[in-house]
Each structure stands twice: as structure tokens, then as C-alpha cells.
Amino acid sequence: MGNVAIKNLKKAELLELLDIYSKNWLAMDGVWFQSIEQKYGMEEAIKHDENAWRNFTVIEAGRIKNFLQLPERSGIDGLKKALSLRMYANINKDEILAKDKVLIYRTLDCRVQNARKRKGMDFHPCRSVGMIEYAHFAKTIDDRFECEAISCYPEITDETCNCSWKFTLVDHEDRSASDE
User: Fold this and answer.
1) Global pTM?
2) Distance between CA atoms of 176 and 171, rounded to whole angstroms?
3) Where are the beta strands (DSSP E) in 15-159?
């Protein structure tokens, strides 16, 4: 392609480039993690991963929220839209199930775990990192969300997916009134 400006690319080329960028971002996330893991061990790498996600996920969610022009409390619909635009949403196979005040997000095919398996590595114990990542992401979209892991390595309770997360929209004002 030579010296091509992004603004001159066709839609199909832009979509292909988006996949490349997503894969590159995920590869960078993986190589920095593995660098710490190899030098200091899994426990130390997880601590750094948790710290990185605690900050990154809020930035990512905020930018997506702005892009979608979501209101402060966009509820289940807002979270569903935002999750579908995450940096890796176009390269992982996932599904989103929503009903009433609950949204279930399931990663059916995870590139991170697949890559570690291909390399003969132990799976990434992502449950603690995921709790930070998904809880902070959802709360940035709408501060009423509570998040829980349904199934996530190393605590797999659903063999049909790599991980599964439950987001519940809770109106704290209603809860405090009912607690009285």
C-alpha cells in the first residue's frame, strides 16, 4: 500500500485495519504482562495487571461513553452498546444477554487464553483482574451497576464459555429506602 493516509482508506480496509489495531493492542497487553510474569512471577504480574486495568478501563469506558453520547445513567442499553465497542470486542467472540435490570456478558472464545494455550502456558488467572476491569467499566457507563463474575478462570462454573459476567442495575435510593 505504500505511504497511505488512513483517511484515504476504503471501508473494508479500515475494518481490516481496526482488526489489526485491536490485535496489536492485545499483543502489547500480553507481552508486557508476560515480561513481568517471567521476571517476577504470576502473582506480581497480576498485581500490575490489576493496577493497569483499574485505570485503563475507566479511560476506555469514558471515551466510548463520549463517542456514543450516552447520558450519565444510560442503564442496560448504554452498557450493552459500550461493551460492543471495547478495544477487543471485534476480535473476541462474545455474546450479550440482557433482560430487565440484568446484563450477562459472555466471552465465548478468548484470544488471550487461546494464545497462552498455543504457547503451552498456564491459563491467565483473570478473575481478579476481570472484576476490576468489568466493574469499573460498567460503573463508568452508569454508576448504578454492580458486577459479579459468574465464571472466570480459575473458577470456571460454565464450560460453554471462557468467562461470564453479570451486571445488575441497582437503584441505591430504592435499596436504602427498603432497608429502613
Assistant:
1) 0.89
2) 9
3) 93-99, 102-109, 145-152
